[in-house]
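Progress report, Aim 2. The chain analyzed during this reporting quarter is listed below.
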Amino acid sequence: MAKENINQHHNEDYEYDTLTNDKLIKDHDYDGIRELDNDMPAWWKWLFYITIIFAIVYCIRLFVFHSDDLVQDREYENAMAEAKLGMPENSQEAAEFQIVLLEDEALIANGKETWDKICSVCHLIDGGGLVGPNMTDNYWIHGNTVDDLYNIVEIGVIEKGMIPYKDQLSAQKRLEVVSFILVNLQGSTPATPKAPEGDEY
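Predicted structure tokens for the chain:
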């Protein structure tokens, strides 16, 4: 008798569709639409269970075993160490590196590629100058030697809008683009040259 009362009370929470016999939850309707009391699909339930299992395993690996591939600080330290190993400043290449004008055609071509991708935005492809100064005339704001230009490319001129490229370009790339400026652009005739700036050299 008690069992029948429980079932009767439980069934009082629902109504049944007269056509399909589907269970309808009482007092769950909006604009004439009734809510069915259907179970969620099995695939959805299993997907939910899998995400819970994944979260538990992930937390155990991260906080209990301190897995190397999950700890971000360690990942960052490893990436920085690898980057330093590849930098000329930490190898024999650094000792041999000299800031001198490059004249090899392949290296000059590398410099032109860097110029076209980065420098031409402010100086134009032909070096005539736009936001940045004209690189083809004999007037220079910060000097016209290889060292002068290399230093500017490395540290930038923040007040003029030029960022430092010591982190974006390797020492070799910086020297290549400087050499391209002095060998190919300096003394050329751009289409619309910007007015001279700086001192004449």
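Strands lie at 14-16, 23-30, 33-36, 139-140, 199-200. Residues 1-10 have pLDDT under 50 and may be disordered. These observations will guide the mutagenesis work planned for the next reporting period.
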